[in-house]
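Anyone else keep sequences and structure tokens together like this?

Example one:
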Amino acid sequence: MEETDLIKGLQNKSHSAINYFVQLHQQFVFVLCVKMIHQREVAEEITQDVLIKCIKNINSFEGKSKLKTWVYSIAHHEVLNYLRKNKIPTTELMESIPIVDNEKNILDTFADKDMKLMIEHFFNQLPADQKELLILFYLNELSLKEIEAVTALSAANIRVKLFRARENFKNLLSEKDITLLNQIRYE
């Protein structure tokens, strides 16, 4: 289904369009929520809320970005609202993900489960805002312009924050840890 047809179907409250929309975006939104909140039940609730909010507010979609970017932006704000409401720290960037979508997650390229676990362990030590930017840029392959639309940050600010996130991730991987990663990978 074309995006314009999907939008028209959602505006007309077509059951097939709603079902298609949910199937298309449910996993994408859920992965974002679970990566940011780390609580499956809460992530499921927020995912439902986001999808309902998107369907109810489809008439406010202006078409300035892809529908996926708009959905992600709503999910992004819902997660932030949950984090703020529950006083969960989000560090300096009070705008906070991963979208796996229907594409292969980059971690799936590593055959060894231990390596995946170790990388996820270090990744999860990063502040939420840094995790989100790395996920948006590298896993979801969003452009800087799309990330701007989601986070309301400038492209220059995004570049700086991505640089810091990469540096922090590198710093988490000490020489000992890198050696261990290499041992695990090449055994």
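And example two:
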Amino acid sequence: METFPSIKTSRLILDELTLADVPLMVKHLSNPAIAAVTLNIPYPYSEKDALSWIYHADQCFKAESHFIFAIRQKKDKAFIGCISLALDKRHHRTELSYWLAEPFWGKGLVTEAAKSIMYFAFNTLQLNKITANHIVENPASGKVMVKCGMLKEGYLKQHIHKKDRFYDIVIYGLTKEEYTKL
């Protein structure tokens, strides 16, 4: 794939991160509530973190190992979060992950973004399986996975270590065969 894909839904645009996203990225990710329920988002979040993430996203796309999409409101193209697919080409699968700015929680936007990314993963990338996980303290993320048709596959005790604490995670998955039956 030579150019980064752009996916449109009824309320969103999912596309490439840009340097213009840095101010809103820093603003949204300076919220400790987001860092508390995600694995790799530091708190406090700085401009340097945002620039590093954008560079990482670009390098991963070039290496064809990871698609990291900006989530934007369709009406004004404002940056409100990220959704990504970490590819495991050998096994024809991907891990889905996402975060959304707190003012946009509870509106079905992540579910909308995730469903469109799942379509992209199965139909454009021709993958066989999508997995996702969430820490137990973030049940809203699990609800998104269920709304997208994903099935609970496991529970891993003290699987994640962050800020001197271990967290349990719940793992979900969906195969292409299961997806076609939704």
